[in-house]
UniProtKB/TrEMBL annotation:
Annotated source species: Planococcus lenghuensis
Signal sequence residues: none
Protein name (record): ABC transporter domain-containing protein
Family designation: Belongs to the ABC transporter superfamily.
Keywords: ATP-binding, Nucleotide-binding, Plasmid, Transport
Pfam families, A to Z: ABC_tran (PF00005)
Length: 303
């Protein structure tokens, strides 16, 4: 069944001063998508997300929600968690989130249920009575996320939502967002935690210098770059600085500990091992297809 379009970005241009950060940007988003927005720092990710959320008005073009410009009705269906913290410091954790549900039009009873559920997702049930200034930066980030998702909006826009979250909280949040998308809603998020994002997002959007480079299903994006592999080498002892620097001139090392190298899929494995064993004994080799993080680093190198 064809999914309904929820957001249309048409010829959008944003500039700061005389510099265009984004220009002639066009794309459509559909219900049921969970999109990972990736790109290097300064690529325009935050500017794009803030524009979609209505926090920035484009100098050129427009953003439509269900074929209409952003209005009060559309805004109430958006859950937005910006990179910069936006929470009420005079309210405790519970009331920060509870207020979000009440403002969305839920009854007191419904708001309590939704608040408790949102706090559980981000792992703040035991801190509900604390004020934000008594929390760590990561915990404050969780308050903001809970407030953004408490009213289960049809559109969620989350800029770096996993920052400051531990592994369990990250999985709980992303699993909840995935479930939300599977129910026919739309989720757009950016994150540097690409391993976790790869497990849950179904679509990848890669932008560079304000331009859309790739926007496709995760499987198609990954297969596009499967002409190289990542090898993890178990070695007898760690390389010295001199050995590492010398070896790095001959092979592409992406991690020193554990030692990981990137090779072309058709490159003979024996030649690589022979080269490494000039300096240290190789005890075992594990081969993996490139994941989202590997591909991102490769694309970043080509900037």
């Amino acid at each position: 069944m064809e999914q309904e379009q929820v957001i249309k970005i048409k010829n959008v241009g944003i500039k700061y001063g005389d510099n265009w950060v984004i220009r002639n940007f066009n794309t459509d988003f559909y219900q049921g998508q969970m999109v990972a927005l990736i790109g290097s720092n300064g690529a325009g990710k935050t500017t794009l997300m803030n524009t979609i959320a209505g926090a920035i008005h484009p100098e050129e073009g427009k953003v439509e929600f269900n074929k209409k410009l952003l209005n009060k009705h559309a805004f109430s269906s958006i859950g937005w968690s910006p990179q910069r913290q936006v929470i009420d410091w005079y309210l405790n954790v519970y009331n920060n989130v509870y207020m979000g549900a009440m403002l969305a039009g839920y009854s007191k009873r419904e708001s309590k249920i939704k608040t408790n559920n949102a706090l559980k997702i981000v792992g703040l049930e035991d801190m509900s009575k604390k004020h934000p200034d008594a929390l760590s930066g990561g915990q404050q980030q969780r308050v903001q996320i809970a407030r953004a998702i408490v009213h289960t909006p049809k559109i969620m826009i989350l800029d770096e939502p996993t920052t400051g979250l531990d592994a369990e909280s990250t999985d709980n949040l992303l699993a909840s967002l995935k479930k939300h998308a599977d129910m026919g809603n739309f989720v757009l998020l950016s994150s540097h935690d690409l391993h976790s994002v790869e497990n849950y997002c179904d679509t990848i959007m890669f932008i560079d210098k304000g331009k859309l480079i790739y926007f496709e299903k995760k499987e198609a994006f990954l297969s596009r770059f499967q002409n190289f592999e990542v090898l993890t080498l178990e070695i007898e002892h760690e390389l010295s600085d001199a050995q590492f620097n010398t070896l790095q001139k001959s092979i592409e090392i992406i991690s020193r500990n554990p030692l990981q190298v990137r090779i072309k899929s058709n490159e003979p494995l024996g030649d690589l091992i022979q080269l490494v064993e000039r300096y240290v004994c190789v005890k075992d080799v594990k081969k993996e297809k490139s994941n989202l993080r590997d591909i991102y680093l490769k694309l970043k190198e080509g900037e």
